[in-house]
Amino acid sequence: MCTCTDHHLDIDIYMSELVHILKAASNARVPSIPRSALKHYWSVELDELKEQSKNSYDMWIYYGRPRSGDIYISMQQSKLRYEQAIRQAVKSFENRFTD
Question: Taking the model in full, what pTM does it have?
Answer without folding.
Answer: 0.62
